Amino acid sequence: TLDDLPADLTGEVALVRVDLNLPMKDGSATDVTRVEAVKPTIFELASRGAKVLLLAHFGRPGGQRSSMLSTSMVIGDVERVIGKEIMFIPEIAGPVVAQAVSSILRDGDIGLLDNTRFWPGEEKNDPNLAQAIAAHGTLYVNDAFSAAHRAHATTEGLAHFLPAYAGRSMEAELKALDAALGTPEQPVAAVVGGAKVSTKLAVLEHLVGKVQHLIIGGGMANTFLAARGVNVGKSLCEHDLAPTVARIMDEADAKGCTVHLPYDVVVAKEFAANPASLRTCNVHEVAEDEMILDLGPQAVEALADVLKTCRTLVWNGPLGAFETEPFDAATVALARTAAALTLEGSLISVAGGGDTVAALAHAGASQDFTYISTAGGAFLEWMEGRVLPGVAALEV
Ligand code: 3PG
């Protein structure tokens, strides 16, 4: 971590990998959480006297320059959040970068290099590219946990060419995630929601061996219910996964993990806000022309009771079609219960994944969770129990 560096970094050039892959609308970022997350690292390095060169990807340009995907698109948002002027450098290696470092940036100044993915060597983790970038710095800091599932030149390769450190955001993510699944206080509950089992199979397989309570929500719950022989009408459901899901449930049984499926559900004949056909029923009473769109109130109450018996919660994915009212009710209610238990000090709650963060924010619960990860794909891969290459490279 940055604690392993000397206090005075004057004369050092820190290459800092951050995640500036921000959601954009009309040319500005709609959410700057990721910038806020890396602010402490940037500030600390700059105030300890280092020249700071920020490296980041933006979108998926596939190895080609594109003006719309230049990191210059986000520099205004980054400057606003960091509260300091940042120099844009339209390259990631070579004479332009060398000149900026030697003649323009002073100690404590910050530069932002262009989109690392404009160079094909980035995604190929080409050691020649990593070496060329490394030539401009004296140390490497990775503060982009949310890109650590990618073995790219600036997320993994650089660590082989320079002394490598975890930034403050990376450090906080790893600490929180370890507290949730590495060495958690038990019992542990996991909420896994979202539309499809197929995208989260590896997560489920890993969790049944790790947690005591596995709470299934969203469209995924329909697939689990169908595998138990429940008629889910015209609900979103991956019927072909029934045997896989049955195997996961058997495995959970064998490993002492209780899989929680809803008793009651909210259904409608069409998916729209507050539809006329809206009703709540027992899972065994879903009609052929109805679809399940949320968990019912009894299910939520039962799940709240489960959380009250737990010490740790890890949450990924909404429980219902939360973007459309009233199908946000179960997610909102359970998120608020988790937030309240966290505030009381009886629960350590960690959540991550794009949809999840939006759902918890919608519930007004985010600020009370113990930790909300800035990661989407990386959070899921971590929930699968995978070693993330960007993290592994720091541990060498
Ligand atoms: C993200 O937005 O989750 C990260 O920045 C990773 O982006 P990617 O999925 O394009 O690698």
UniProtKB/TrEMBL annotation:
InterPro entries: Phosphoglycerate_kinase, Phosphoglycerate_kinase_N, Phosphoglycerate_kinase_sf. The keyword rRNA processing does not apply. It is found in: Cytoplasm. ATP binds at K200, E323, G353, G354, D355, T356. Substrate binds at D19, L20, N21, R34, H57, F58, G59, R60, R117, R150. The keyword ATP-binding applies. Belongs to the phosphoglycerate kinase family. This is Phosphoglycerate kinase. It comes from Erythrobacter neustonensis. The lineage of its organism: Bacteria, Pseudomonadati, Pseudomonadota, Alphaproteobacteria, Sphingomonadales.
